[in-house]
Amino acid sequence: MAKKADWAPHNGLLQDLPHDVCERIGGDLQLVELPVGKVLHEASAQQSTMYFPREGIVSLLYALENGDTSEVAMIGNEGVVGIGLVANNRTLPVRAVVQAGGEALALRADIAQREFRRGGAFQAILLRYMQALLTQTALTGVCNRHHTVDRQLSRWLLLVNDRIGSAEIKMTQEQIARLLGVRREGITEAARRLQDDGCIRYSRGLIQVLERECLLARSCECYSGIRNEYDRLLGSDSGA
């Protein structure tokens, strides 16, 4: 870890915290690797750590009794995995799995809870993030129920692009199908149409976003609803 005075969290929730908060929690943040496939917590299992990603993507997945899974939300360097810990909620019905590798800053639950109970900036920004995450979860459910696979895929690609800051997304069609809870053939057909329209270029295990505006035109209002709420609650003018 860097010295407290030099820490550079590269995480949207941590980077604008006041100096006094940085002084209190900076020494307790541990830099950890997030390799693809790593499970940060299982569904309904006890949690003891919050993870503030610096890069990469973590999916929150809900599993049905038959083993089928669906992504209910994704978290990148704009957020935190384990937000329920500050409310003493140590279990969640979802599992957190790394989909795009990177690094995170890990913070023990007791440290986070202590700082949260002080009130102030740390509490305020986590409460705003909790509301933004609830909006993403709600609109993801609406989108998966009411919109076509083409629109779902466009929405999902835009959210990933926002979080990794890169035009290249390393993920197979099978992985995306599992995350969206649809048939792989549906993803294959939707990706082909997006490629034919010049929105993306797809090769095995790699999607390149060529024209973001093209994806925006083919996405649904769910993406803009999620993006607008994150910008409103966590943007530079939100009072973070």
Structure commentary:
There is one protein chain. This protein has 240 residues and is of the alpha+beta class. It has two domains: 4-143, Jelly Rolls (Sandwich), CATH 2.60.120; 148-219, Arc Repressor Mutant, subunit A (Orthogonal Bundle). Helix content is 42%, strand content 21%. The strands form three sheets. A four-stranded antiparallel beta sheet has the order 2-6-4-5. A three-stranded antiparallel beta sheet has the order 1-7-3. It has a three-stranded antiparallel beta sheet with strand order 8-10-9. Helix 3 runs antiparallel to helix 8 and helix 5 crosses helix 6. The chain is globular. It starts with 18 loop residues before the first helix and ends in a 6-residue tail after the last helix. Residues 1-6 have low confidence and may be disordered.
CATH class division of the largest domain: Mainly Beta
The description of the largest β-sheet is: 4 strands, antiparallel
Radius of gyration: 18 Å
Shape descriptor: globular
CATH architectural category of the largest domain? Sandwich
Low-confidence stretches: 1-6
CATH topology of the largest domain: Jelly Rolls
What portion of the residues fall into strands of 2 or more residues? 15-25%
Would you count the extended β strands for me? Answer: 10
| Total domain units | 2
Question: CATH-wise, what's the superfamily of the largest domain?
Answer: Jelly Rolls
Q: H/E series, N to C?
A: HEEEEEEEHHHEHHEEHH
Helix percentage range? 40-55%
- Secondary structure class reads alpha+beta
Distance between the termini: 24 Å
